[in-house]
Every structure is written in C-alpha cells, then in structure tokens.
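Issue 218. Parser rejects a valid record. Input:
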Amino acid sequence: MASFSHAHRRAVALLFVAVGLGVLVALALRPGDPSAPVDVGVPLRPGAAPGEGYDPLVYQPGRREEYERRAASGLSHVLFAKSPGGAVATAERVAAWRPLVEQAASGQVVDPDTLEAIVFLESAGRPDAQAGDDLAGAVGLTQILAETGQNLLGMRVDVARSARLTRGIRRGRDVAARTRERRRVDERFDPVKALAATVRYLQFSKQELDGRDDMAVVGYHMGVGNLQTVLKRFGADEDTPYAEVFFAASPLTEPDAYAKLVALGDDSSTYLWRVGAAREIMRQWRADPGALAAEAELQTSKNSSEEVLHPPAITERFRDPSALARAGADGTLEPLGAEELAGWGVRVDRRMGELAPRLDQPKRLYRALRPEALRVLEYLGTGVREISDSKQALLLTSTARDDGYQRLLTRRNIEATRRYSLHTTGYTFDIARKYESGRQSRAFQFLLDRLTALDLIAWVREPGAIHITVAGDADRLLRTG
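Output the parser choked on:
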C-alpha cells in the first residue's frame, strides 16, 4: 500500500533512523523506589548467560504510555530544527486550520489532535506544500500521493493540469484564479478535501489493522502493506501495541521484523512518536506559548537537543581546573579507568587532555565523566561489542573540560564552540568515527538510536567524532546492580 508522506521523511532521514529499537525500558517507569537497581534483563546476544551480555533496558508492557511519552520527547528535536520558520511559527500556521480539522474529524473515529499533528508534520500548515517538482508525489496540507488519492481515496487528481497551473502560479500569473482552479482539478491542494481524505485513509488503515488507533497512524506513513509485513514477521497479534514492536525489534531480537524496518530506508518507524511530539507542541502553543518559545530556543541553540537535557541557566559547569578537581574528589565526576574501559570495549585516545600542560594540569584531570555519562559509555561499548562481535574498541576522544580548557581548544579547533559547551558539565563525551567494520558502525548507530528514543541522550555527527550528551537520569536507568 502506498503511503501518503515523502516530504517530511526526506527532511529528517539522516537524523532519525531509529528503526527496530532493541528491548528497552526506563527505571523511572518501574513501581517503587526509582533508584533501585534493575534485577531483570534480556541478553543482547542470544544464549548469553544471566549477568553476561544482559540488557538492563527491558521492555515492560505495562509501561506503554511512558514509552510513548519518552519516544515523543526524544525524537522531537527535528520538529524544532526543521519546521519552516521554526516550531512556534509552524504551530501558529497549523492552529489556523483547527476549525477545519475538527470539522473533518467530527463524528469520525479520528482524534482531531492527531489529525492536527499530521498537518504539522506533513506540511507545516502550508496547503500548497510539495515534496518535489513532480506532482505525482506527495502534495498538499497532508501530503497525499497522486496514486493514493486517485485509487484509494476517490479524489480528483489531474496531475498534468495541476502541473500546468502550478507553473503559472509560480510565474505570478493570475495567481488567485489559478489557485482556485488547481484546487478543483487536484483536490489534494484543497484543504477541506485533503483533510477529509486523510480521515478516510486513517479509517481504512484502522480497519485493516485490527481497529488499532496507534497502528492506523503508523500505517499512514509506512503504508498499510509494509506495516502488515512487519507485524507478521514480529508475530504480533491484535493486542500487540506498536510500542512493543518498535522497542522489541532489533538485530538480535526479532531480526526479521527489524530487517523489514531497515529495508524501508526512511523514518516510518518513528512516525507515531513524531506525531506525539507535534501534538505536544500544539498543546503547548495553546496552553503556554512562552514555554514553547523557551524550549524552541534550547532545541535550536545547538545541532542536537543537548541544551534541553541540560539548560545552561540551571546546569552546573566547571569554570576552572580547581572546580574539576573538586568534582573528582567528591564523586561528582568519576575518573576513567583504562582496565575498566577495556572491559567495555572502549579505549582512551592518548591525546585526550593534551592541552592540560598549558594550564599547568595533568592530562588525567580531563579524563573523567559524570556517573550518568559513564554508565551510557559502558552501555554503548558493551552493546556494540555484543552486537557486532568486534575486536577493535571504540575510541574515546574527549570527556570533561573546564571553561579555561574550552577557550584554549577554540583557538585550534573550529568545531569547538565558543559558547556554552556541554563538555564543561561532565555529561558529554566524543567517540571517534573510526570503526573496525561496517557491522561495528551499524551496531553503534543502532544503540545511539535506541538511547535517543528513550530520551536518554542527544547526539550529533561531527566531522571526526560522534558528540554524545547524556541525560541526568541515565545512571539509574542503566544501573544493573
């Protein structure tokens, strides 16, 4: 079954490739003491003995809503970074369509907030949005493919005439009249009919997918046929939520379902979570636009959402070497142990801390991390090794710094920020983009994506390294004993 949307998936394919994430859970979701260690797990590697290769992030069916909330939050950055004019301006445009959204959803089985979120994702509230120059592709407020509109949704779609009118509109010739005519010959450009058609597709999708609202939304972007293939390979029944499929399919657990998701080559698997993120943006726009604007500023200040995890106004920074030393003495920072790292499949770049002598300090002062960041480093290193069977360790190139070290670094490294550096908080580390094999690289990417979907990290691909910032609750989420 053809899906509706191509425009948004093109815009964000490189940022969120998080398909088939492995078995996951957050300790924060467990009942009882949230600081208690996890005592259950499933192996990263089939056949691993208890305590050997075990994954502390275990999917728990009773926590579905919390998984969905975390995934929406963890995958929201692209909405702030890529929305035309920014998330606030997009929310304002989308809100203008709310009366028509409610009209289309009225008396139907479609939630108007979900339909509104689809408008946000697909067109950013622009009724003339096009995925490309070929009008056979996705166009309009909800990005409907010409074939889908004609053959499934009963829409009038004359691609040739629509293209001629579009060329005239672009040349500024009798724009108002041509726009009206284009809406008549290509109903995908008519907001009322596009919204009604989207409701029809969601109803069709829901009917084909055992009456499930979550699956209907996934099917809207992925295509019903593709989703049915994934569900069959996963062994899902009519009660299996999409959250379980998403969080349980991995290269080592449910590999057939994972392979299908990867083969799609787009961001279909994360669509439901991005719909959730768009819903939350629209809720904030109506309830507290000031808070939305503040979040938008944090989301777009860097190339990842790292400042959302650790806002500069409230996050402790290490201003000078003495602050770093005190943090190490009181346990705020933990030193890197070569033997311990080797056990995790990680090694330290010998150049790490090379500017320390210029501050009259030893290199080891700049080889430390917050406990939370250290646990994530352990999880990444051991996970990559288990999944890829690689012998070469991941190369750790940078950890904690102070402001003085950061200033020295900016004089020789154009990639180093002159503003707020998350390295000065101890929550951030860099891993060199040097891999033993494609298998090791793919394993690393898989784990980056799984942690992002749990809102545990924010990361960005730099020329020579992957820059990873860890959330403040990751230590208790990943502790196994």
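Fixed in the parser; the record now loads. The beta strands are 42-43, 54-55, 334-335, 346-348, 368-369, 394-398, 428-432, 457-461, 465-470.
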